[in-house]
Design brief:
By secondary structure, the protein is of the alpha/beta class. The chain contains twelve helices and 16 strands.
C-alpha cells in the first residue's frame, strides 16, 4: 500500500531536520523527529544535538509536552532501546503516550537493531517502518558504514578546470573556482566530521582547512594530514592553530616530533602501503575508532587516487571551472590502478548545480 501524503510530508520534514546534525553528531547518527497531534498539527520537532545529545525524540517530546499523548511520531531512525548517557528513546515515546510511530530505517547498531521497534510493539503502539528508507540510509551512510564496516563515509572534493587540472603548469591553484563555489566547499566541511589532505597540499598551499562560513565558524572538522616522513612544518598555519582546531597526522615515520605534540598536533603511526605511505584502510579504521562517520578528502591528486584505487571513494563532489589549463597543468586525480575501461571505477551522477560560473556535479559510487 502506498504511503499517504501526510506521512510522506512529515517524514521529509524529519529528514530535513536530521540533516542539520551532519558533521556535528558523531559518533551518533543524525536523526530527525516530528510529532503530529491527532488534529494534524505539528506539536514537536527535534534533531540530534551537537555531540550526539540530546536525541531527536527527546527534543521533540519536550517541545510537545502533554500534546504528545495520542500523537504520531515520525522518526528517521529506529528509536534507541539501550541505556547510554540518556534513557532509551523507545521508552520515552511510550511514556509520553505516543499512539503511532512511523520510522524510516532500522538502526544497525547491535545494541538497538530491532529492539527499539520491539519495545514499541510490546507497548501496543501502532508501528510503520521503511518510509523513505533509502533517503534515510543515504543521510546516515557514514554512521552505517562505521557500524558495519568500521570505516567512515568518504567524500572526495575535486576542483578542476574543464580539462581536468587542479593547478597550472607553474603549480598555481588559488583560485580555480569562484567565491560562490568555495563557500559551498566550506559548507561541505561543516557537514563532515573530519577533513583530510596529503602533506604535499600542506607544503604547497599552507591551508587552514577550517569552515569559515559566517555563523558556522565553530563547525570546523577534525583536520587530518597524511605525512609519511613527518615533513609538516612547525610554522605552517595548521600547526600554529592546532590548539584551537583539532589536528591529527598519520605517519609511517619511526622518528618522533615532540614539537608537534607540544603545539597540539596529535601524531599517530599506522601501517604503510607498498610505497611506504600511510595505508588508507588503516587510516580509515583509526578514524572510525575515534567515532568519525564522515570524512571529506580535499587533496592532493595522489591522495585522491589512493582512495579511489582502494575502492574507498563513496561520494564525489566535483567542481568544474570554465577555464582550460592545457596538457602542462596538474591533473586533479593521480594515477589510477585501472588498466582499461572495464576496470575503471564508475560513479552515478546524482545532481548538477551551478555556483556562479562553476558547475558542481555530485556522484555516488556505483553499487
Amino acid at each position: 500500500m502506498s504511503p499517504n501524503r501526510q506521512d510522506l510530508r512529515h517524514m521529509r520534514h524529519a529528514l530535513v531536520l536530521a540533516a542539520r546534525g551532519l558533521g556535528q553528531v558523531a559518533p551518533n547518527p543524525a536523526v530527525g523527529c516530528i510529532i503530529v497531534a491527532p488534529s494534524g498539527q505539528v506539536v514537536g520537532r527535534g534533531w540530534t544535538g551537537s555531540g550526539g545529545r540530546p536525541h531527536a525524540e527527546t527534543q521533540a517530546l519536550a517541545q510537545a509536552g502533554m500534546r504528545a499523548r495520542g500523537a504520531t511520531a515520525y522518526v528517521t531512525l529506529e528509536p534507541c532501546a539501550h541505556v547510554g548517557r540518556t534513557p532509551p528513546c523507545a521508552d520515552a515515546l511510550i511514556d509520553a503516550g505516543i499512539a503511532r510511530v512511523v520510522a524510516s530505517l532500522t538502526d544497525p547498531d547491535p545494541r538497538v537493531k530491532g529492539a527499539g521497534f520491539a519495545r514499541l510493539c510490546d507497548a501496543k503502539i501502532e508501528l510503520e517502518t521503511g518510509l523513505l528508507a533509502a533517503d534515510a540510509a543515504k543521510l546516515n551512510q557514514g554512521f552505517v558504514l562505521r557500524v558495519e564496516e568500521a570505516r567512515p563515509l568518504v567524500t572526495l572534493k575535486i576542483a578542476h578546470s574543464l580539462d581536468g587540472h587542479n593547478a597550472a603548469a607553474s603549480g598555481e591553484s588559488q583560485w580555480i573556482t569562484s567565491e560562490e563555489a568555495r563557500r559551498y566547499g566550506h559548507l561541505l566541511r561543516a557537514q563532515h566530521d573530519a577533513i583530510l589532505v596529503g602533506i604535499e597540499t600542506v607544503l604547497a598551499d599552507d591551508p587552514l582547512l577550517t569552515c569559515r562560513l559566517a555563523g558556522l565558524e565553530g563547525r570546523s572538522p577534525l583536520r587530518v594530514v597524511l605525512d609519511s616522513r613527518l615533513r609538516l612544518s612547525d610554522n605552517c598555519r595548521l600547526v600554529q592553530t592546532a590548539s584551537a582546531v583539532s589536528s591529527l597526522v598519520f605517519t609511517t615515520a619511526a622518528q618522533d616530533r615532540p614539537a608537534l605534540s607540544d603545539l597540539g598536533v596529535e601524531v599517530l603511526r599506522v601501517a604503510g602501503d607498498a610505497r611506504g605511505r600511510p595505508d588508507i584502510d588503516a587510516v580509515l579504521a583509526a578514524l572510525a575508532a575515534r567515532g568519525i562517520t564522515r570524512l571529506l578528502v580535499e587533496g592532493g591528486a595522489s591522495v585522491q587516487a589512493s582512495f579511489i584505487n582502494r575502492g574507498r571513494a563513496d561520494r564525489l563532489e566535483v567542481f568544474s571551472a570554465p577555464m582550460l589549463l592545457g596538457a602542462a597543468g596538474h591533473s586533479s586525480v593521480g594515477a589510477l590502478a585501472a588498466l582499461g575501461l572495464e576496470e575503471a571505477p564508475r560513479f552515478v551522477r546524482e545532481s548538477v548545480r551551478v555556483f556562479g560560473p562553476d558547475l558542481l556535479e555530485s556522484y555516488s559510487a556505483r553499487a
